[in-house]
Every structure is written in structure tokens, then in C-alpha cells.
Amino acid sequence: MSLKQLRLSARERSQVQTHQRLLDQGLRLFATQGISRTKAIDIARAASVAVGTLYLHFQDKDGLLHEILITGLGKLRAPLRALAEERHPSYSHSLRRHVEVMVDFVNNRPDLSKVMFHPEVLHTPVGKDVVDFMTLTMENLLREGAACGNVRKDIDPVVAAQALAGMLLHVLWWWAQDPSHAPQHHVVDTLAAYHLATLLNN
After folding, report:
1. Are 90 and 38 in contact (CB under 8 A)?
2. What Å distances lie between residue 88 and 92, 96, 164, CA to CA?
3. pLDDT digit string (tens) for 113-133?
4. Angle at CA 21, nearest 5°, toward 16 and 22?
5. Which pLDDT band, with edges at 50, 70 and 90, does 6 fall under?
6. Domains of the chain: residue spans and CATH
7. Cα(69)–Cα(64) distance, rounded to whole angstroms?
8. Where would a tag sit more exposed on the chain, N or C end, judged by fewer CB atoms within 10 A?
9. What is the distance between the alpha carbons of residues 200 and 39, in angstroms, rounded to a whole number?
């Protein structure tokens, strides 16, 4: 390998590291200061680069936020899609496992959850993708429950999915702000029990 190639490789590695540092600091500041209060220059300073460097990597602050959200959505989708492939002994078990995965996501990624589930973010194009994914996940669960006779017949799965996804997103964001609000297992137990009490045939 030539000296020129080594230099290019080193420069490319530096660019990748700078890009990731901007993402990491952007996520930290969005989570702690809020999205509207965080400026591009704040992120650049936290990442120890000039603000012009940020604009070499992202179109603007919103572009950086967009990449954070796209990556976060992928991390949320992966375990839920894997869960959809599993066999569950009952609808109740399936719903509880989905709630466990979502709450565990918040527990393991609190800063990302504060940003992804923030009400301000949910009105952005990527935020709407998060809402749509959560809603579709709930709708599929409801249809699964209806098919096996567990979900009440007077429940419209499309309407119920909107309501359940909205409540889930709000509770997950609320808990991400301060996990001392409730122990993790209380959050799971309450969400699962509330959903089941509302949806299941008696």
C-alpha cells in the first residue's frame, strides 16, 4: 500500500470518526436540552469541531436529527420484526412480549428514546414513520388476536391500533425522561394489563 493510500485511509477514518462524534453529541444534546433549544453550533462545539465541519457532514441540524431517527427506527424495528416471527402460546403472551421489547428498548437507549418518542419529533417525516410502524405493529397484533377469538368483536383494529400506539409512545417517552417514575416491570405489567383489559373478550 502506498503512502498516499495510507494517508487517504487515515483521512477517511478521521471523517467517519468525526461523523459519529457529531451524531453522538447531537443525540446527547437533543436528549438533554431539547431539539428546538439545540443549535448546530452547540453540537459542533460539543464534538470539538468547527460548525462548518458539521455542514460538511449534514445539510443542517435537521439532517443530523434525521440520521439519528433513521438509525433509531432501525434499532426498534429489528427486535419487533424478530418477535413477529416467533410462535407464542397465546395472544396475551404475544402482546406482553411486544410491550417488554419496547420498554426494554427505552431502558437500554434512554437518550435515543427521549428523542425518538418526543412529541415534537413525531410530527416530522421520520417521526411519522415511527408512529406508522408502531401503529402497524399494534394493528397486526389486534388482527392476530381477532383471528384466534381473543379480541372483542366490537373492536376495530385500525382505530384501536391508533389509540394503543399513541398511548404507548406517550408512556415510553414519559418513562424515558425519568425512569424513577416507575420500575421497569411495573411499566410492562401496567401497559400489558391495560391493553388486555381493554381488548380481550371476557
Report:
1. no
2. 9, 10, 20
3. 999 999 888 888 888 988 998
4. 100
5. low
6. 9-59 (1.10.10.60), 65-199 (1.10.357.10)
7. 9
8. C
9. 47
